[in-house]
Amino acid sequence: MDSLFPKPSGLNLTLPESVDALARRARRLTTPCGEGEVVWHVWGQARDGVPPLVLFHGGSGSWTHFVRNIEALVAAGRELWVPDLPGFGDSAVSPLGGDADALVAPLCEGLRQLLGPRPCELLGFSFGGMTAGLLLAAHPELASRLILVGAPAMGVVPQRQFELKAWRHLPTPEAQAEVHRYNLAALMLHDPAQIEGLALQVHAANVVRDRLPRRRLAHTDILARSLPQVDCPVWAIYGAHDALYKSWITQLASAFEASARDFRGLTLIPDAGHWVQFERPEAFHAAVLAALA
Question: Is the CB of residue 210 less than 8 Å from the CB of residue 122?
């Protein structure tokens, strides 16, 4: 298996742990996606009476959005099922379109093929949270609870709160890395000291495999409009400094209460931005395990 994280020449981007080794410890399964497949990574062992925990990563990402969380959640006794969502990572693009709504059918087919009639517990980060909401609105039987992490499209932000810079046209890895640093600071991370090293390496490896460049649903209220069709309990976890919302984050709790049938609460994690599970993993794990208890 080739390294997931080829090092750009001229840059000192070293990993503090072997992400490739973590990937090799997973069981790799596939389900149909048009002419291609959705790739699922599975860690941990099934336990009687404990549903599998399915994690959906964010936009321009892959399973590595959870690179700092997998071992801790497995150690807590959970079996994790983490797909590369269609159009990202190792998974094929959905033939149905290029946004979250096009991912519902192949993900539903995959969950039914892999898990049968068993409902999972579903956690979605950012774009993956919006996708999870759309999935359960259409197929509420697939999950017994939903945890939304940094999810967009709740209809409380009057205008986009950040702008990202383009990087694909830049001629050198060094120039591209500077833009990746800027974009991580603008959207993903509150603490600039965390941008170097693992965060930058993961981000740079993921964005080159993003094949859904024209996503627009995240800038609508589609998640808020979908949650009334979701039957299961819903929890929300956000970094207190999430760049998607900034000062509007104070309105999130009331937005969830107004839209989700069974909303169980919003946890705001201090000193964290949008990529909260990477930036504050211990606090994130505590919030997730409390929701799963």
Answer: no
**Superfamily name and number for 19-162+213-292:** Alpha/Beta hydrolase fold, catalytic domain (3.40.50.1820)
Query: What does pTM read for this prediction?
Result: 0.94
Tokens describing residue 1: 């298996």
124-142 pLDDT tens trace:
999 999 999 999 999 999 9
Burial class (CB in 10 A: 0-12, 13-18, 19+), 225: middle
**Where are the chain's structural domains?**
19-162+213-292
What is the arithmetic mean of pLDDT over 167-174?
Answer: 94
Are residues 108 and 57 in contact, defined by beta-carbon separation less than 8 angstroms? no
170 to 9, 158, 165, 208: CA distances (angstroms): 14, 32, 11, 13
Q: 108-115 long-range contacts, Cβ below 8 Å, gap at least 24? A: 108/135, 108/138, 108/139, 108/142, 109/31, 109/32, 110/31, 110/32, 110/33, 110/38, 110/40, 110/83, 111/54, 111/142, 112/142, 113/31, 113/32, 114/29, 114/31, 114/40, 114/81, 115/52, 115/81
Q: What is the tens place of the pLDDT at every residue in 2-25?
A: 444 444 444 444 444 679 999 999
**Phi and psi torsions of 143, nearest 5°:** -140, 150
Once rounded to an integer, what is the mean pLDDT over residues 154-179? Answer: 93
